[in-house]
Amino acid sequence: MLEEYDYPQRSGWRVYLLLFFLFLLGALAAYFVFNGRVGLMGVLGSSDNPADSNQTTAAEPNKASPEPNAPVAQANVPPAESNEAGAAVKLDEPNHANDKNLRRLIRKHPAFVERVAERARMVDWQIEARGIKDPNVLMAMQAVPRHAFVPETQQRDAYNDRPLEIGYGQTISQPYIVAFMTEALKLRPDSKVLEIGTGSGYQAAVCAEICREVYTIEIVEELAKRAAKCLKELGYSNVFVKAGDGFFGWPEHAAFDAIIGTAAAGRVPEPLIEQLKPGGRMILPCGSPGGFQYLVLITKDKDGKLTRSNVMPVRFVPMTGEVQKIEEKVNE
Questions:
Q1: pTM over 0.90
Q2: What angle do CA 275, 278, 280 make, to 5 degrees?
Q3: Active-site residue set
Q4: pLDDT tens across 131-153, in order?
């Protein structure tokens, strides 16, 4: 006779617990699929850091994904110290972390904390996405409030990708051209820059964010006064403005590490070549007002030998003054 054996009863709670977890995982997966967010593994591995509220979340054309810890990553982050108009904002200089003597810029003018998101989009879409890589240039373009340099009637378009009229037949260059020309100069914190054609003062301000001193000359006296006033109000104490003919440069402060011209001429003024320091770089538009113009990059080696190359077709307002007189004589 076989003995009866009492088999143990399975615990039902284990089955219910397994079903509960399966249901929970299914619900989470369905939620993230239907809401267009990240997948389940992205949720489980996501960071606790929230996205910067001032960065655009729209799709950015032709923009590659940033590399981890890339030096330009901070260039598009707006100042975090304050969002209130008039509050002091500290702008850290990029790409020179080991330079103990590097100056720190303190900005108190309200313009620096206005329209920050627009400047971030300008840098992302118009400048960085088109190949500008120098982190100093990206930071400078992010920092300088372009709307403060244009007339009130033009301020709504201040961060669009085009030049704007500033009066007296002159314009403020489009942001990409400003960034391109600045990057071509390869400025350092100790650089001394000469600018021919102050215009609104915007290009001088961008250079001043990176280098030690900027000397800028404007032939239209009223524009020179306006730019000097604007630059002073914004706190650019390292920019020096003079009303005069840029053809002759500024010999009292030569030699210059870099020279930038913002008006087109048929020839490169000889005094500017003389005032360029050995090892220096110069960029300016050359060509006729109604014809072809190119941005010309000139470098001078330690022996004074010049190398010249055309780097980009452009269209600038003509340079006036002495260079115009010389060209008229040549064409007679």
A1: no
A2: 75
A3: 173
A4: 999 999 999 999 999 999 999 99
